[in-house]
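haha ok so turns out i had the wrong file open the whole time. this is the CORRECT one, sorry everyone. sequence first:
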Amino acid sequence: MTDTATPRRRTRGGGGAARRAERTAVSVETAKYIERNIPNFEVLNEEALQIIETNAETVLAEIGVNFVDSPEALERWRKAGAEIDGERVRIPRGLARELCKTAPSTFTQTARNPERSVEIGGKNLVLAPVYGPPFVRDAEGGRRYATMDDFDKFVKLGYMSKWLHHSGGTVCEPTDVPVNKRHLDMLYSHMSLSDKPFMGAVTEPSRAQDSVDMCEILFDGLDGRTVMTSLININSPMTFDSIMMGALEVYARANQACIISPFIVGGAMAPVSVAGTLTQVLAEVLAGVAYSQLVRKGAPVIMGAFVTSIDMNSGAPTFGTPEASHITYGAGQLARRLGLPYRSAGSFCGSKLPDAQAAYETANSLNMGLLSGVNFMLHSCGWLEGGLVASFEKFVMDADQLGTLHHFAKGVSMDENAQAMGALREVGPGGHFLGCEHTQENFKTAFWRSDLFDYKPFETWADEGERDTVSLASARVEKMLGDYQQPHLDPAIDAALRDYVRTKKESMPDAFS
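then structure:
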């Protein structure tokens, strides 16, 4: 197979031994993606929404956006009716919104285990882990640069985590592998160590193509199916670079999903006001989504909004703040008016440790994501130190708490069993409900219970060493990795993937920048 050749389909193989292995493989429990039975929280009235939408159109038509080092993109925009001035693209009012109409409001991302496929959009919420940190932290080794071994461990933890629906992408940046080759190892890790859906590489268009080619092998041909999401960040304010746009073009042509997401630190990369930031977010998303549809009508996209505020004393990003919540809620309303799936929120915090600050900020951010109507939540577990660090302990702490989102999203049942009239009649005034028939029938499922937190009496807790949550999380990481069993992968497909990775690596010298 040459570097540029599209892989040919391979017939699944392995014989009877492979089929027996597949039948006997251990499968961990994964909850279905969240289907909301609660209303979204909305902070903007109709007048505010119309003002923001009008102002975003003004930004596109009068100020414009830059598509840098992208002659092909400029030519696409020219043919679509935009005004081109150097690398500046001014988009007539209504054009971007019209182009966005061909993007689907929902789509399925197919996993190699069909039972773990996810539906993105509508009232659904798909949870994926942290993305991009160059450092990792654990209780034993502290803070250090991430390695490929760390990456593999995070993929295993994600596979073992009940409430996570998605394996994610760059769960940490493995700095011990050359920059131009690490995407191959990361993709293979997601494909072989987990059978949940995953994300493709975006750091260079050829790496996006590698992602598509490897998926052709893994899925024995794509046949138009969407099997990857990818994170396409906009260089706010209002700049689209050739690297990200090149990756977007690869994925859109292959009908793979792109999260088109401004990366905004309020006050530095956008105005300090909520309304001003929302105007910029909407303008950038309109331009990005419209461009994806110029590449391929109907290509699946997700409207993204990664927004933090800034500490005006230190310049550091801040998380879990009211302003970020206002923007996240407002962007959700704008996404729904566009008819697009929505990505935002996560386990955001600025803390250096998985401590009380991390817990408060993370809880605010996770709940904000649920109530704002997010459909795809990247960074839902493991985020620490403003996204610089992927923490093993915080990964399992956050993953445990994602269960609360599942249960809260169910809403309040009003069926006959939930009304509990029989229990009220049986117990009557002055009694208790512990022994009544209704309690006995429902106690196992009535209340969500953490698999991590300590609910024991003080004496028991003291006798067991007075362990705090981080200690419990560290022990849970060790147990989960010890219990991990690799999901079955057809040996012929595995061999083809390994061959692809080996051939690609041998075709180029190592590069660490």
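Confidence is low (pLDDT under 50) at residues 1-14.
again sry for the mixup
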